[in-house]
Structures are given as structure tokens and as C-alpha cells.
């Protein structure tokens, strides 16, 4: 399969499942809260349901990738996305809203691992990292799209979600006709498809720790940044309107993660990106009324979040080299697990201490991960593990 064909199918599906089905909630939250009268703490819990669903789904995707087939899992992901978005559009209380957010969140967890498997088995080695990174950057496309739709439709959040569901259906059709119909064979899959080797787990300790902490830190931004920004009277209204668009458009830089890793190395790329990601939160916490900070912050966050998730894919697939599904699934699962706790904690802290304190706290958590950088594997070790595949 050609790399370009897979990117053209995978990028919009990730845009739908991540940008529309998952992260759009933070964009529409101010309007939903006003319409359904939901508190900040309840908003945090509902937001956490998306990440919790993601954790469940990504485990299922890793377990059944070979048995069900990558394409079939992606089709199921698309159906969950359409269903969840439709439920959100029709919700008239927090219970129905939570159900919609949960079901939409399932689509996110199901979508990522199958693409990693297809890349691993169908794409040439020299294009694998860049293909994974570009597919992953679909999140930024989806985020920018949600921002532009919200700009034109303002407070009509129900109609926005109906449009999202229609887009999700169209993308599902594209993937149905574009992806290879043949399932990944047992020969192509790892012989120990659910149990990577012991040495791989040892090498993954830093990856696991970093993923959880980055999840806690980023959940604050995704859930409450725009709600915070539009509530600051000193900032121009246009900034609040464009906030999500800035995050999304700047996130396009995330597609170059594979390229930069090949040029400067995974460790350097990781440290630089984490500093950018954490500084985005710090700017909102320290200078909430400064317009320049309000512009720089979403640009930093959008580009660095997509970039760091791209780096986690490279880090993961280079750690679990005998199992591509695990290489993507483990860091993304733990990132989402951190976001489950991060969303709940964020809602509680924001009510008790206020948004400025919350974003400073988020930044400090992010900065901690600077000290957990990717470990370079011994060449002999890599060859041994590759030989077991």
C-alpha cells in the first residue's frame, strides 16, 4: 500500500475521532455548560469519560487487532464516532451528554492501533515514522475544523455536532473504500502479539512515566483553556473565537515529528517539545490578561501536543519493536489514563483554587517529564529483538 494513500485515509479518520469526537468537547464546553447548567466539576468528570472510554477501547484494539482485522476495527471506530456525536447533539441533560462523550471516546481508542499495524506491515521501513506522524497529525486538522465551524455557528452547539456526525460518516466511507480489505495475517503479526518481550517492558519504563504525566498536564488545557480564555474580560472576544483554530492550525507541525527525529534524534526532539507544551500552560497561568500570551499559548500547545504524541509513537514503536500495535497503544493508553485523572483533578482544582493556579500546576507537571527522556537502545539489543519478530 502506498504511504500517501494510507495518510489520505488515516489522517481524516484521526481528525474525526480525536478532533471532532474527543477534543471538540473543550471547545463547545462553554456553550454546553450554559445550555445544560453544568458545573465545572461535573464538566471535568464528563470530560474524563472520553479518556476513560479511550483506555478501554485502545486495549480492545490491541487485543483483537489480528483476530478482527485492522480495517474492521477502523470501521467500528467510525460507527462509534457517528453514534457518540449524534447522542451529544441530542442530549438534554448531563447523563445523556456523558453517554455521548463516552461512546465518541471509544472511537478514538479504536482508531489509532489499527493504523499502526497497517503502517508496520504495508509501508516501507524508510517511510514508517513519517507515515505514522502524518496520520497522527489528523488531530490538528480536526481541531482546526471544529474551531472554524464554531466561529460560523457561534452558540448552536447541537447543530455543530450534527455536522460533525455527517463528516464522520463521509470519512468512514473514504476509509471503507481506501483501506486494504485483507486482514493482517498471523505471519505479519508478532508471534507474541499481546505479550512483548521482557526487555521491551524494561525499556518502556520512561515511556510509561512520561505518558501518564503528559496526560495529566495536557488534560487541563484541552478541557478548560477556552472556557478560561473567553471568561477574561481584558482579552479581545476574537481571541476566544480563534483560540481553537490557532491550536489546530499550529498542530500541523506535528506531522513533521518523524522528520525531526531523524535529524536531531528522539531525545532532543522530546525535551524541546515538552518545554514548549508546558510553557503554553504556564503563560495562561502567569499572564492571563496579556493578549500576546493568549496568542502564543495556543500556538505553542497545538504544535507541541501533536508533536509530542508523534514522538510518543516513534518512541513506542522503537521500544516495542516486535509489536507495532503495542508501540502505539501503550503510550496512548497511558496518556489517556493520565488525562482521565487530569480532567477530574482539573475540575476540582479550578473550583477550589481558580484557573490561574490550575494552569501553573499543569505546567509544573509537564516540566517534570523533561527529566524522563527516551533511552537509546543498544544496536545489538535492537537486532536481537528484530530477529524475534
TrEMBL record:
Compartment list: Cell membrane
PROSITE patterns in UniProt: MFS
GO CC, one annotated term: plasma membrane
Pfam families in the cross-refs: MFS_1
Major site of localization recorded for this protein: membrane
Domain of life: Bacteria
SUPFAM superfamilies: MFS general substrate transporter
Annotated TM spans: 7-32, 44-66, 73-89, 95-113, 134-154, 160-179, 200-222, 242-262, 269-289, 295-316, 328-349, 355-373
Keywords assigned: Cell membrane, Membrane, Transmembrane, Transmembrane helix, Transport
Molecular function terms from GO: transmembrane transporter activity
Membrane topology: Multi-pass membrane protein
Domain Major facilitator superfamily (MFS) profile positions: 5-377
Name of the protein described by the UniProt record: Hypothetical conserved protein
Natural source organism: Oceanobacillus iheyensis (strain DSM 14371 / CIP 107618 / JCM 11309 / KCTC 3954 / HTE831)
Source species taxonomy: Bacteria, Bacillati, Bacillota, Bacilli, Bacillales
Amino acid at each position: 500500500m502506498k504511504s500517501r494513500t494510507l495518510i489520505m485515509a488515516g489522517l481524516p479518520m484521526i481528525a474525526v475521532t480525536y478532533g471532532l469526537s474527543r477534543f471538540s468537547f473543550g471547545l463547545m464546553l462553554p456553550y454546553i455548560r450554559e445550555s445544560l447548567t453544568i458545573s465545572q466539576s461535573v464538566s471535568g468528570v464528563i470530560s474524563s469519560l472520553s479518556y476513560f472510554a479511550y483506555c478501554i477501547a485502545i486495549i480492545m484494539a490491541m487485543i483483537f487487532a489480528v483476530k478482527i482485522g485492522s480495517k474492521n476495527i477502523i470501521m467500528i471506530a467510525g460507527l462509534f464516532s457517528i453514534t457518540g456525536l449524534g447522542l451529544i447533539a441530542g442530549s438534554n441533560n448531563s447523563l445523556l451528554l456523558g453517554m455521548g462523550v463516552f461512546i465518541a471516546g471509544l472511537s478514538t481508542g479504536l482508531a489509532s492501533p489499527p493504523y499502526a499495524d497497517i503502517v508496520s506491515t504495508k509501508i516501507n521501513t524508510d517511510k514508517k515514522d513519517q507515515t505514522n506522524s502524518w496520520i497522527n497529525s489528523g488531530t490538528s486538522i480536526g481541531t482546526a475544523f471544529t474551531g472554524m465551524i464554531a466561529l460560523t455557528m457561534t452558540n448552536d452547539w447541537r447543530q455543530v455536532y450534527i455536522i460533525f456526525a455527517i463528516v464522520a460518516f463521509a470519512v468512514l466511507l473514504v476509509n471503507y473504500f481506501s483501506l486494504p480489505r485483507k486482514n493482517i495475517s498471523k505471519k505479519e503479526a508478532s508471534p507474541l502479539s499481546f505479550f512483548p518481550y521482557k526487555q521491551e517492558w524494561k525499556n518502556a519504563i520512561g515511556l510509561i512515566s512520561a505518558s501518564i504525566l503528559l496526560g495529566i498536564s495536557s488534560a487541563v488545557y484541552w478541557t478548560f483553556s477556552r472556557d478560561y480564555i473567553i471568561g477574561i474580560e481584558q482579552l479581545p472576544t476574537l481571541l476566544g473565537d480563534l483560540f481553537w483554530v490557532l491550536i489546530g492550525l499550529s498542530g500541523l507541525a506535528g506531522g513533521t515529528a518523524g522528520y525531526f527525529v531523524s535529524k536531531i534524534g528522539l531525545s532532543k526532539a522530546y525535551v524541546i517539545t515538552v518545554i514548549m507544551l508546558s510553557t503554553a500552560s504556564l503563560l495562561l497561568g502567569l499572564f492571563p490578561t496579556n493578549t500576546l500570551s493568549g496568542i502564543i499559548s495556543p500556538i505553542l500547545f497545538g504544535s507541541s501536543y501533536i508533536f509530542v504524541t508523534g514522538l510518543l509513537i516513534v518512541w513506542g514503536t522503537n521500544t516495542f519493536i516486535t509489536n507495532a500495535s503495542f508501540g502505539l497503544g501503550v503510550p496512548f493508553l497511558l496518556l489517556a489514563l493520565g488525562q482521565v485523572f487530569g480532567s477530574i483533578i482539573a475540575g476540582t482544582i479550578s473550583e477550589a483554587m481558580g484557573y490561574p493556579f490550575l494552569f501553573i500546576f499543569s505546567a509544573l507537571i509537564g516540566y517534570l517529564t523533561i527529566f524522563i527522556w527516551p533511552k537509546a537502545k543498544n544496536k545489538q539489543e535492537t537486532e536481537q529483538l528484530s530477529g524475534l519478530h
